[in-house]
Design goal:
With about 750 residues, the chain is of the alpha+beta class. Helices cover about 45% and strands about 15% of the residues.
Length: about 750
């Protein structure tokens, strides 16, 4: 069993993957060769298209090796290459093929040689060679057909002879060792000659009449000639194929690539699944997720942003399935496989290695203990880079107190190597030891104490109780035994466990509060530095202005003090001095432009800070900076930045909005086509009344049906100016930005 198959089995994905691989046109692994990003983009382009059904093709690696050695292929092997060529020709001829995009570029690279395409058309659908291609072969076929007709005619004539009727067991033509014959009783030799081919269990004779023997000999010679002719044709066609060996290798690989992608799309359409692509991150955010193995599942919503997730709480409360679900989502995204998920609102990180240590009580080992086996598995992955690791029931097989200390060190070592880890545990001590680590998140399986059943839901940031006594009672362990166990366990031990849980939660809260205060201090320090820089900058500007004015004053004074011999010259000096001052004043007034008027909601920049206008008091604008500070600033100190807060959705002026406000976005996830169209039509009408220029419609990716329906609807709506796929941060190709 390969590592991939082993991991899939641990995660309960074997049946799901087996179902998926049945959609392949050629048997292969689910893993694909090539760049993930390129495959993801091709998948996106290919998803809305409907291609011709890929033909079932056998593996042709051996046949390519034969061609490389100038070997002669069998006719059925040449036919397999022909099927691939005709399939790609049909794909390239599609009228619905997009004019541009990654898939169009990929298809355009496939240039099928005309001689190979003509060769592919030599074959019938069943693999036989069409008539009219090879005259010699057609002549042999015609002769064979004539011989067969003569054999049938001769046998029919023999069966109708009256003299032979008493010796006929039946009037059927039998086939023995490929030869037609009659079943006769003893004594026939007086009336008919031939060769006895065999005897029946009843003692009758299978006779091939003498008249048929000569025809069968001709037929045999013609069949030999036919095979010789076929070999000659195969030799000729193989020679042609060998000339294009590099292209055949390329298109054989391209067929597998397209098969990988289109099988995924067909599978997603049939099962109503979505593609959640892995992203360059270590975060795992799941929205409306369900493990493929669950029937009527409770949808999972989870945010795993830190590096260690500890799942604690009630037995049989779904901890193991939560662990498997998280790992399964990453596993399926890593192989571009569709899953039950709200892909638009989910985020799946990228990991080079995925591993799971999950106990299976039905597969015990005779030569090694459970704990020793776990230590052996962990030792192999201690230094694995970019690792996503899951360990189920981490305390299994050894003393709880020793295990807590040991696993604390192991987990911290793995975290130091950059691993992302998910564990389930009943160790309150281990949970309390790890809870103070800022890289740790806690999830507790919840228990309905009133009805004494697990809820299969989880509470973030808490350590859960095991509810061992309650679970035992639910599974019919006598109440008297449980009561004795409670007494033996002791009230003090129960109180201690409660204190551990509470102290751990308090410690977590303190860490979170400390982190918030530290972040706020950093913002304040940064703001202080910015203000000090602004003060220094203002002081320098003020000094520069003083120096400039002093220079102008001295220049004017020099002109005024120039020696004058007459009253006229004195007036000239005064006029020159006045002109210098007026010029400086004019330049000053030109440099001071009227301050820009701002509106509430405008984005601005003040110094190095960014913010938004929230109000106006006299000549001062009230601004709220992105870092939370609120200031009163004059207009000349502000600069416009970016657009208003609603850049993508504008409203028309002088339009009265409807009494019931309408949103600027519509979510159609999970709706049937008819219901989606009805809601989309009403939404467009409401938005037009509200005066919106631009709105957003979420339809998701899914099977592609809803996407196509919405696209067709928008294309024909008289009030829709244009529409396009939304930006990645607003839903990508799972949403449409519609301009009205």
């Amino acid at each position: 069993m390969s590592k991939l198959e082993s991991l899939a089995k641990k995660l309960d994905l074997s049946e799901f993957l087996s179902n998926f691989t049945s959609f392949f046109a050629r048997e292969k692994s689910i893993a694909f060769e090539g760049d993930y990003k390129i495959y993801a983009q091709l998948l996106k382009d290919l998803e809305p298209l409907t291609l011709p059904t890929p033909p079932k093709i056998k593996n042709l690696d051996t046949q390519l090796m034969h061609l490389q050695k100038s070997g002669v292929l069998h006719l059925e092997d040449i036919f397999e290459f022909g099927k691939i060529l005709l399939f790609f020709h049909a794909v390239k001829s599609l009228s619905s093929l997009p004019k541009m995009g990654s898939f169009r570029e990929w298809v355009d690279k496939i240039q099928i040689p005309s001689n190979l395409l003509a060769m592919a058309r030599f074959f019938e659908e069943d693999g036989g060679i069409k008539s009219g291609i090879f005259p010699e072969l057609d002549q042999i076929r015609s002769n064979l057909s004539t011989i067969v007709s003569q054999i049938k005619s001769s046998l029919s004539s023999t069966l109708s002879q009256n003299s032979l009727a008493p010796y006929l067991v039946d009037k059927q033509v039998h086939l023995i060792n490929g030869s037609e014959c009659l079943l006769l009783k003893a004594g026939f030799n007086h009336f008919i000659k031939g060769v006895i081919l065999s005897r029946s269990a009843s003692g009758f004779f299978y006779l091939c009449p003498e008249s048929i023997l000569k025809l069968k000999e001709k037929e045999s010679n013609l069949k030999d000639l036919y095979q010789t002719q076929i070999y000659s044709i195969c030799k000729e066609l193989s020679r042609e194929l060998s000339k294009s060996l590099l292209f055949l290798k390329f298109i054989n690989k391209a067929f597998d690539q397209l098969d990988h992608l289109y099988a995924r799309i067909l599978f997603a359409r049939e099962k109503n699944l979505e593609f959640a692509l892995k992203q360059n991150s270590s975060e795992i955010i799941l929205k409306d997720y369900a493990h493929p193995n669950l029937k009527n599942p409770k949808l999972l919503n989870l945010e795993f942003k830190k590096n260690l997730l500890m799942i604690t709480g009630v037995n049989a409360g779904g901890k193991t399935m939560l662990l498997k679900s998280i790992l399964s989502s990453v596993f399926l995204a890593s192989y571009l496989l569709p899953q039950k998920i709200n892909a638009t609102h989910s985020k799946i990180g990228s990991f080079k290695h995925i591993d799971a240590i999950i106990s299976d009580p039905q597969n015990s080992k005779d030569d090694i203990s459970t704990f020793a086996g776990r230590m052996l598995e962990i030792s192999h992955i201690l230094n694995t880079p970019s690792l996503l690791l899951a360990i189920d029931e981490i305390e299994l097989g050894t003393d709880a107190d020793e295990a807590s200390s040991l696993y604390k060190e192991i987990l911290e070592h793995l975290l130091s190597k950059g691993a992302k880890i998910i564990i389930t545990t009943h160790h309150k001590r281990l949970a309390s030891l790890m809870a103070s680590n800022p890289q740790v998140e806690l999830y507790a399986a919840l228990f309905d104490e009133k009805n004494q059943i697990p809820t299969f839901s989880f509470l973030k940031g808490s350590i859960g109780k095991s509810y061992a006594f309650e679970t035992a009672l639910r599974y019919h362990i006598p109440h008297s035994l449980i009561q004795k166990a409670r007494e033996h366990y002791g009230e003090d031990k129960e109180k201690l466990n409660t204190l551990i849980e509470k102290s751990t939660l308090l410690e977590l809260e303190l860490h979170e509060e400390k982190a918030k205060l530290q972040e706020q201090n950093e913002k304040l320090y940064k703001k202080r530095i910015e203000l000090e820089e602004q003060i220094t900058s203002n002081a320098l500007a003020l000094q520069k202005e003083k120096n400039r004015l002093e220079q102008i004053y001295q220049e004017a004074l020099r002109e005024l003090k120039k020696e004058a011999k007459s009253l006229s010259e004195i007036h000239q000096n005064m006029n020159k001095s006045s002109a210098i001052l007026k010029k400086a004043q004019s330049q000053e007034s030109e440099s001071i432009q009227a301050p820009k008027e701002y509106k509430i909601g405008d984005k601005i920049r003040y110094g190095k800070s960014k913010g938004v206008i929230t109000g106006k008091s006299g000549s001062l604008y009230l601004i709220e900076c992105d870092d939370g500070f609120k200031l009163k600033v004059k207009a000349h100190a502000l600069k416009p930045y970016g657009n208003t807060p609603s850049p993508t959705i504008s409203t028309k002026s002088k339009v009265v909005a409807p009494k019931n406000p309408v949103g600027i976005s519509l979510d159609l996830h999970g709706l049937r086509a008819e219901e989606a169209l009805e809601r989309a039509d009403k939404f467009i009408s409401d938005c037009l009344l509200a005066g919106y220029d631009e709105v957003l419609i979420y339809h998701g990716i899914g099977s592609g049906i809803l996407s196509k329906v919405i696209k067709d609807f928008l294309s024909t709506h008289p009030k829709v100016v244009s529409f396009s796929d939304a930006p990645p941060q607003m839903g990508g190709f799972g949403a449409k930005v519609v301009r009205l």
